[in-house]
Amino acid sequence: MMHLINSKVLALLSALMLGGLFCYIFQSYSQQYEQPSILHGRTDVVTVTPWLAPVVWEGTFNPVLLDSIYKVKNITVTATVFAVGKYIMFLKNFLETAEQHFFVGFKVHIYVFTDRSNEVPQVRMATGRQLTVRSVPSSKRWQEISARRMELIQTLIEEQLPNHNDYIFCLDVDSKFHGRWGSESLGALVAVTHPGYYRDPRSRFPYERRPASKAYMASGEGDFYYCGGAFGGLLQEVHHLAKTCRSNFEADTQEGIEAAWQEESHLNRYMWINKPSKVLSPEYLWQDFKPKNPEVHIIRFSGVVKNYAEIRPNT
Asked: Most buried of the four, 7, 77, 151, 297, by CB within 10 Å?
């Protein structure tokens, strides 16, 4: 009987302690950010799509709040980057700036695909962050390098990334980070609006217009024009995207067709049919050669200025 009473007392004390701890955490947590408002916010840009997906701009989210939500989930964020041929020259800058801005404070695993493993730079990474190099064959055509990315991403997820609760972002190596890219970008399927076309009507989007192609977009179709250089989401969602785009690309190849912008064309077709659950503004992949537009308050990630004739094998 005494043992039973002691067990009940211990259980009660444990419950009281846990309750007190919860109240303390909740009180601290609730004091970390100001009360949200549904009446005031950005009015110069659209912050939600017609299918109710958030469009992420500076000033539309609270980073402290979002980090506190996702850090307790113990997620790992994977990033893939392809440094094939002379593109290896951009890798050091990419990795160093990622350490400063990409999911700081989270577990991050960067996979570098390259045909020049001995030239991968040594970059010191913070605790909880790691780098894995995977060798890939070189190519005489940059279009082939671009096209193979979907296949390699699909294979990576199938063979190395079994936890479907984690996230992956597929990013261009000839880019660098300038500001925070963090938990505000997480979603089931995430696309980035292209900085060159986000102000244009869809009639000007460089979609694949040949009906014979699996990437075909008819006149009047399309929501936004999305970047091939930055996309992501949950592992199972990105796996389905990569597998579908790879299959469609191979079907085109069988018919002797190469889509206008290779994987980017197939990506845009996929996102038209499978709407992204979150859309990132052009802050998340700007172009260094163009001035910042007024609605872009911060550049988080950008493609660097380069001479394509020097770095692309068949340009």
From this structure: 77
Q: What does the alpha-carbon distance between residue 150 and residue 60 come to, in Å, rounded to a whole number? A: 31
Q: Which stretch of 82-86, 159-163, 248-252 has the lowest confidence by average pLDDT? A: 159-163
Which DSSP category does 102 fall into?
B
Check: CB of residue 131 under 8 Å from CB of residue 117.
Answer: no
Count CB neighbours of 256 within 10 A: 7
Segment 180-189, tens digit of pLDDT = 999 999 999 9
Residue among 314, 301, 300, 312 nearest 58 (CA): 300
pLDDT at position 173 over 60 = yes
Element (H, E) at 114: strand 107-114
| pLDDT, averaged across the chain | 89
Contact present, 198 and 225 (Cβ < 8 Å)? yes
Q: Give long-range contacts, CB 8 A cutoff, 24+ apart: 137-144.
A: 138/84, 138/85, 139/84, 139/85, 139/313, 140/313, 140/314, 141/313, 141/314, 142/85, 142/312, 142/313, 142/314, 142/315, 143/258, 143/262, 143/314
Amino acid making up residue 197: Y
Categorize the per-residue pLDDT at 293 as very low, low, confident or very high, splitting at 50, 70 and 90: very high
Active site residues: 264
Give the residue among 300, 105, 96 at the shortest CA–CA distance from 185. 300
